[in-house]
Task: structure prediction
Amino acid sequence: MIIAVDGPTASGKGTVAKHLAARYGLKLLDTGTLYRAVGLAVLDAGGDPADEAAALAAAQVLNLAAIDQDRIRSSAAGAAASKVAAQPAVRAALLKAQRDFAADPAGAVLDGRDIGTIICPDADVKLFITASLDARTGRRLKELQARGETIDFETLKAQIQERDARDMGRTDAPLRQAPDAHLLDTTDLNVEQAAAAAFQIVDAARATH
Result:
């Protein structure tokens, strides 16, 4: 079984994906970490994430096993990820790694922004997770504050809006809900409620297959 989980930043898609992987015994790939890692590598090298040559070079040598899961969660890595993800050459370089992961006969859960539309268009179940801008800003603010980063709500909200616009407006694999994806709005749901709603969707989809 392949489960595709898409949605904008801080919608809860990563958390839902983790719960789905645990419940159904599937391996998990958060594809956003790939773009964050590429963006961070460019920054570490003193480059500009918007520079396609620099971003492509970083993508081509990306080592999945060496990704620093803590450092890629910074706001700087998130902003850099959005810039490198807008570049078709970078997306092409990372496409094979994502599809290879999904091709495992044991099945997988992948979360990102183009899983149901581009990476795994034939996924058994597709979810599109969303939430209001204010709810997403509040969640990301808590996450960044827990990391010791200081940023005010309105500044972060503007950054998330800008990222949404970049993700949805890019010509290559824009963020959008696949026609056959199930919409799950987590604005008023806690983690357990969001996971339970996702389980319901997957169980219903499996019952009809």
Summary: The longest strand covers residues 125-130.
